[in-house]
Amino acid sequence: MINFKQEIANKIAKVVDMNEQEIYGYIEVPKDTKNGDFAFPCFNLAKTLRKAPPMIANEIKEKLELDDNIIEKVEVIGGYLNFYINQNELAKGILEKVSNENVKLTIGEGKTVVIDYSAPNIAKPFHIGHLKTTVIGGALYNIYKYLGYKVVGINYLGDYGTQFGKLIEGYKRWGSDYDLTDDPIDKLADIYKRINALAEDDEEVLNICRDNFRLLENGDEYCTKLWNEFKDLSLQEFQKIYDLLGSHFDSWDGEAAMAKKERIDEVMELLEKSGRLTESEGAQIVDLTEQGINTPCIVRKSDGSTIYAIRDLAAILYRSRTYDYDKSLYVTSYEQNLHFKQVFEVAKLLGLDAKYTNGLEHVPYGMVRLPSGKMSTRKGNFVKIKDLLNDTIAEAKKIIEEKNPDLDDKDEVAKRVGVGAVIFNNLATNRVKDEVFDINEMLNFQGETGPYVQYTYVRTKSVLRKVDKVPTFDEIDVEKLNDEYSKNIIKLLYNFEDMLVQVTEKEEPCLLTRYLIDLSKAFSTFYNENKIIDDDEQVQAARVFLTYCVSKTLKEGANLLGMQMPEKM
CB-based burial of residue 204 (10 Å sphere; 0-12 exposed, 13-18 middle, 19+ buried)? Predict the structure, then answer.
């Protein structure tokens, strides 16, 4: 298939002093189809050429050599060069590619991306505060893999830290009061809540909890045994959530794996060699003032215990050696912005190849809040993902029973709609935007939601079931798709791959959710304005084939988000 953006970039590069790939990155798709298929903004050239953008655009237009078989015309609108592509060429290229089951993208071939996401805390409920990292990381994992990258998904479990000293102490005191064979995480969370309240009021209890953690760090048999039990029980419960969300991980190495003495000792030795490790009030720190960070990075506390920054540094060493990554992404809340700025700067002192430190990237996201405010496991003020998913599935089933009471396999459809609604809702807006959870909004079949995309997909499947056989690309006449509504769909289909590349450049899955909404809307308009099952066999074949391409792309895009599509609804 012709890469039309590349063709345009190549032609512009011949007449302006700019790198072809840089030009490619600036080329846009106009929102209004009347402004062409692609547009190149000339504003970025205004400063160097010292001319107004419209003047620059006109000068470039005059010098362009066009191939009428590909680019039909170029117009200047404001400071933009607007390119109009031969619609038959565009349709042929993209429809053939979409229908080809054997196309394998190689954009990321030879490159490795490590994605650290989800990372729930052992012995604490998996609540909606962990939902965004799980679905954002999962979507990025799928998209990078789809584009041909080697991807390593890491669930960096919160399985270490002072909280385990507290939990161990709580279990010592009240463990016999609880049956951990049923809802173990809820029971452990209750123990944690009790001991945390006691430790806040009693400094002596807090010190005992700290001592427990030091014993755990030093391999105490009893503390280690309890920790392993807590971890095993937690992972069994977490897996039930991951099964619903379709989450997969290649590594489950958490903080504890990076807290091993030999790994911590190596990091400390490398930092000492750098000459940047200093002492402050008994703690060991790295001053980052010269790097523009006023808060020092603490790597070991005054009581000798490690802190999670040094474990992150040990993880960077391990991952660079094990995976030889080109990118290493950390999908966590924006509340950890300072932490990762510190860790990434300190990582430069470990003697690693610049490839690895340059590849470190924090992918922050906003908080998920209740209408009453921020959640806290300490206060017991949170919504568990298990309950959220079950409630959403139950609500989806109610809606489905009202709309289609005779539908077969309502439970499975409700599960796909309910879980899909939750996933889509968490990916629907810019990831750094805070979100207030609203179950009614996410299940709105008429809004810009997951159920709306699923409903559109079901509508495409309904159309396809009305024909004996979906035609192949060789059996259709693309000239029968020259109406405005068909052209809008074709342009969107063409932009699917490019949009996915933009997702990886910005680490923004909401670009894909926006795309799926736009494609769903375009198909709804096409469906309402055109007669798909038509007396003209050639028109019907072309429109059915276009419907098939929309159906395939909607399913492919939804699967990349982690959603499953129902065949009927």
Answer: exposed
